[in-house]
Amino acid sequence: YWTNDFKPNYFSWHDFLQKDEIAIDAISDFITRGVIVINDAPSISNSLEELATRLGPIREVLFERIHNVSVDGHVYNIAHTSLELPPHNDFASYTWPPSVQALHMLVNDCEGGRSTIVDGYAVLRDLRNDYPEHFDILSNFAVPFREFDEENETYANEPMIRLNAEKEITGFRYSNQLMQMIDPKKKNVDAFYEAYHELCNRVNSEKYKSKFRLESGHILLVSAHRVLHGREEFKPDGKRHLQDAYYEMDNIENNLVLLKTSGNK
After folding, report:
1. Is the Cα torsion angle 155, 158, 164, 165 positive or negative in sign?
2. Rounded to 10 degrees, what is the CA torsion of 231, 237, 238, 244?
3. At residue 62, does pLDDT exceed 50?
4. Which of 68, 102, 195, 218 could be disulfide-bonded to 134 (CB atoms 3.0-4.6 Å)?
5. What pLDDT, on the 0 to 100 scale, is given for residue 76?
6. What are phi and psi of 57, to 5 degrees?
7. How far apart are CA 226 and CA 43, in angstroms?
8. Domain limits of the chain?
9. Radius of gyration, CA atoms only, the chain
């Protein structure tokens, strides 16, 4: 697990796609730490399609296969403004949210707007140690999340923390933007909000935020059930265009096994 002194490792786009030994190193690091940056990628729209040979097929969502992020005054999503975007993960409104996200910076000519990432597992580990009762309620209390537009609707009612049979953390669902109103008469709602307040304070604490600038040709790859992403406010005095797409960790882990075994044939 890591906190604010963490810096992701960088891997060349060309080497990642063309050299199996580099792909093995990059994917292994990604699975272990939850984040890598691929640099020197083409600043060309839809280049994320080319990562399928290493990451597996793009995970389709209802809205767009590859999503464009730039300042647009006609949408409701805070990502399309120049305001600070707090740490979150995407599509908490899916029963199974995409487990990997790639954010490809095509152009970044604006001042400010550093990317922020948070190791959600580090936050939850510390919360579990300090306030086990908060951790327990967040692991069991179902929370509604919704994302929709004129044509599509996604809705999930799930706890924010996912555990396996051994009570190990296997997923973190966190999005203030998509979280919906909770029935005030629901059992344990007061305990939930007390725990949620503590969780929000930690997620937004400088203690956990790693910050760095994504330049043109950089692709930030995050393990989306673990790592939250966001950005600082920026001045919309130039062009800033980012594209993102989703993949699945199961496919990436499978590809790593194939890469390792193919070298032994």
Report:
1. negative
2. 20
3. yes
4. 195
5. 63
6. -65, 150
7. 27
8. 10-87+99-119+213-251, 120-203
9. 19
Residue with tokens 């994917």: 27
Tokens of 36: 């890598």
Q: How far apart are CA 144 and CA 178, in angstroms?
A: 8
Whether the pLDDT of residue 193 is over 50: the answer is yes
In angstroms, rounded to a whole number, what is the distance separating the alpha carbons of residues 237 and 231? 16
Domain 10-87+99-119+213-251: assigned CATH number = 3.60.130.10
- 182 and 189 in contact (C-beta within 8 Å)? yes
Tell me: the pLDDT tens digits for 203-258? 999 999 999 999 999 999 999 999 999 999 999 888 999 999 999 999 999 999 99
Opening angle at CA 169, ends 166 and 171, nearest 5? 130
CB neighbourhood size of 29 (10 A): 15
Amino acid identity of residue 44, one-letter, is: I
3-state secondary structure 164-229: CCCCCEEEECCCCCCECCCCCCCCCHHHHHHHHHHHHHHHCCCCCEEEECCCCCCEEEEECCCEEE
pLDDT of residue 80: 74
The beta strands (E) that lie in the chain are given as 10-12, 35-39, 67-69, 85-88, 100-108, 111-112, 115-119, 143-148, 153-158, 161-163, 169-172, 209-212, 219-223, 227-231, 234-235, 240-247
The dihedrals phi and psi of 7, each to the nearest 5 degrees, come to: -130, 125
